[in-house]
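Q: Sequence in, structure out?
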Amino acid sequence: MFRQLLLAEGRLVWKGRWVLILAFVLLAVAVWGGPVRTYQYAVSRVQYVEELRSIYQSAFTEFVLDDAAAADLGEAVALLRPELGVNYLLAILAVLGPMVLPVWGAQLVGSEFKNRTAKVRAAHSGWMAVVAAKVLWLLLLSAGLALLFALAGAVSGPLTWRAAQETIWLAGEVTPPPLKAPPALQLLVTVLGLLFYGLVGLLAALLTRSALAGALAGLALPYLEWMALGTPGWGWLLPRIAYGNLLADHFVYLSGGFVAEPLALVEPPSPLASWAVFGAWVALAVGLALAVSRRQQILS
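A: Exactly. Output:
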């Protein structure tokens, strides 16, 4: 029975087309703001250096590139290397995704109240089972989005690097830093982050019976957490900081990139602590969503 419910939920998810639209808009923003803009930035810096070089040469003065400028240009070029393609796109998704997934999560539940189908579905399948199917679909959507970005990174990396080799003289001299984690772990971190913030939107929509309120609550949570609690010494236990620690431990961030390494972090007692803490927050969000749906009076 649950399998049929899951398939029915899947048809509802894809029927509205909002998932595909948001996914490809997010991907377009990430690719344009990431590899494309980084390539354009690197090319513009090279052109600026060449202009300075020609000015110095015309004045019969030796031109020496400043170390800081060389390092900045080198890091921008390194981001275009194929080895960092998946890392770059997933790092962007890990930052932008939590701004979109609350909308997805809230829409999954809020649409049932907006369209007045919650009572019918609760009477037919049980409201807790319906919400459980939505949670599972949220996980599938998070994983699918992360895989889409990983594939885009695997494709965009070689393309931008080929373009860089043709236009940037420094390209052959740049060695990218080693990856901090294999792509599989980067995928897992990204999926967990997307799922958690999607669950926040879903849970808020479940409590308020409004997709809009759920989306706003999910988007506001990191900022409210920061304003209310700041960065205490025990902050590694907070979801925002635990997720930031995972990002800093698993992704390479370089100058000239679309996103930067998270700030205001608190070092955990061990690297595994961030996994345990954030995994616990994800499990808590799932448990709360199921507990609320079990007690919620839908048919009355």
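The first helix runs from residue 2 to 15.
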